[in-house]
Give the backbone structure.
Amino acid sequence: MTTPPAVGLFVTCLVDAMRPQIGFATLKLLEQAGCRVDVPRAQTCCGQPAGNSGDRKAAAALAKQVIAAFEKFDYLVAPSGSCVGQIRSYPALMDNPGWRRRAEDLAAKSFEILSFLHDVMGWRPNGVRLDATATYHDSCSGLRELGVEAQPRALLESVEGLEMRPLNGANVCCGFGGTFCVKYPEISTAIVSEKSANIAATGADLLLAGDLGCLMNMAGRLHREGAATRCFHTAEVLAGMADGPAIGEDT
């Protein structure tokens, strides 16, 4: 009998603070896929804001905390390509050879949830139904750093009643970019306005993606424009948890 893989669930700051349901959906999916899941209480930020701002010392300190909390597991899995991209970059932050080896070990077994379910566990949703039309946005970090593109679409094909519609510019940035939207608000607004127009053009009921930051940014713009499109993390749909308030409707 094969021992179920031990997975440490990295919840992420945004999910913890703004949309805990995504964390519960991720936990549900991992357990359905046959994993033993733990959520280390010692976890905190992955260090990406510090890293993006050039504070290498703070980013490295946070990286060491994450490594210590998660290195005992077979895998680290998070509902965010952005955070996993940062975790995979930890070796470059380490000057000490011992810490660099530990960072490399964790980076090699860290995965975004949708790619983990598809590529590692070979899991597919079974008996999940959602009668709706949806379109999909590819988050920059997941797409460009981790190669997450086909996996979410393949998983969504198994959701009964869900019709997927192509999104023009699906692989184009939504304008969030972490601190980018704070530093360059006018440019960010122009980018997300073009994205929201493309979303509206699909006529889809739902917008799906794999990163909460992107979803919050797009949901905010769609709401301000009076669009009826509702936004969900793909994990929520796959877990059968997209029947309640959408992102932006429960805050």
User: Anything to note?
Assistant: The radius of gyration is 18 Å. The chain has two domains: 6-118, 128-238. The beta strands are 6-9, 36-38, 75-78, 110-112, 129-136, 160-165, 206-209, 230-233. Residues 6-118 form one domain.
